[in-house]
Write a structure and sequence with these properties.
The chain is α/β, with parallel strands linked by helices. The chain has two domains: 241 residues, Rossmann fold; 83 residues, ACT domain (Alpha-Beta Plaits, 2-Layer Sandwich). 36% of the residues lie in helices and 30% in strands. It contains twelve helices and 14 strands. The strands form three sheets. The protein has a six-stranded mixed beta sheet, with helices on both faces. A four-stranded antiparallel beta sheet has the order 2-1-4-5, covered by helices on one side. Strands 12-13-11-14 form a four-stranded antiparallel beta sheet. Helix 5 runs parallel beside helix 6. The radius of gyration is 24 Å and the shape is elongated. The model has no long low-confidence stretch (mean pLDDT 88).
Length: 336
């Protein structure tokens, strides 16, 4: 569906100075997938997504949409391609002087759809996003969450196969963020739309993405399914990045406490996160357990979590406990 090969984007910042926003990025996205790209501010996320529809022109590299290489498309071909690619932004980008229905109709008018067909399509989209009663309202008269739903309806007006979301929930409160996330998931299920989701909000990425790429300093440093990325990051940089964004205690911070036993970090997945494993350890192994920190969370509807615990048994008992946990598919990391 979407294939990016060795994409680079460089900006000139002076006479002999350049800024490499995207250094060498390659990835693929399947049809009907929600593909998240996460990273801190300045990582290159927004520049990358704007290269995908050529709002920014790549310096080098190739972008394929359904096997068509789009970086070489001429103006007319590019405009035709963009009809198949909607986009939503953090600040909604609605026309203040147009009503909700007029905002949604705008891309259809540009594409020269018949007036009667435009009205029908707008009504369909208003019903889909749950705003039929707001069709004659102006943007100033509706909430931020409703504005973003209007923006999504407008982005879907031309039946695009691809929807790009550049921080589409960042300006919303938790309730409206959840409503927009639900709408994006329903868009995929209803229309088979492929979504590329740029966000720095970990809860959004964990809730709706199928796969996630982590960007840092213009590079994708790791890519995986949601569950694998958050539960078992392969690279130390990814692990540290995720922990920093989630506010999860790092090993050095945990060790500020005074612990005499063996301190370990346990990572649980959907197969074991709701099992009473610690109770079994205490009862069956006779080892006291001190829970230091932890959380349980949902990753794309699958439960997962982590615990940092202190095992207060003998060396043999502690090693027996670790083996038992690993046999139950718990990832074990000794901190101290």
């Amino acid at each position: 569906m979407i294939k990016v090969e060795h994409l680079k984007k460089t900006f000139s910042t002076g006479k002999d100075s350049e800024f490499h926003a995207i250094k060498d990025v390659s990835f693929e996205v399947e049809q009907g997938e929600i593909y998240g790209i996460i990273g801190l501010s300045g990582a290159g996320k927004s520049t990358l997504v704007r290269c995908l529809n050529r709002l920014e022109e790549p310096t080098s590299g190739k972008i394929y949409i359904d096997d068509v290489e789009i970086t070489s498309l001429k103006k007319k071909e590019l405009l035709d391609m963009r009809k198949d690619m909607g986009m939503i932004f953090q600040n909604f980008n609605l026309f203040a002087q147009k009503t909700v229905s007029q905002n949604i109709a705008y891309p259809l008018e540009i594409s020269k759809m018949k007036k009667e067909d435009i009205g029908k399509r707008v009504d369909e989209l208003l019903e889909f996003v749950g705003l039929s009663d707001k069709k004659n309202s102006y943007p100033a008269e509706i909430s931020g969450g409703q504005k973003q739903r209007v923006a999504i309806a407008r982005a879907l007006a031309t039946n695009p196969q691809i929807l790009l979301s550049d921080e589409g929930t960042s300006a919303l409160d938790p309730e409206n963020t959840k409503a927009v996330m639900d709408l994006l998931q329903r868009t995929v299920k209803t229309f088979g739309t492929t979504i590329i989701l740029i966000t720095h909000q970990m809860e959004v990425a964990k809730e709706i993405c199928d796969r996630i790429a982590v960007m840092e300093d213009g590079l994708i440093i790791e890519e995986n399914t949601v569950e694998e990325l958050f539960a078992r990051p392969k690279k130390d940089r990814t692990k540290a990045f995720i922990e920093r964004l989630q506010g999860k205690p790092l090993g050095d911070e945990i060790l500020q406490g005074d612990y005499e036993g063996l301190v370990v970090r346990l990572r649980f997945d959907k197969t074991n996160y709701n099992k009473p494993l610690l109770s079994h350890i205490i009862l069956d192994k006779g080892v006291e357990v001190n829970i230091i920190a932890g959380s349980v969370q949902q990753l794309n509807k699958a439960g997962t979590g982590y615990l940092i615990i202190e095992l207060q048994g003998t060396s043999e008992q502690n090693q027996d406990v670790l083996k038992t946990l690993q046999d139950d598919n718990v990832q074990v990391e000794v901190i101290a």
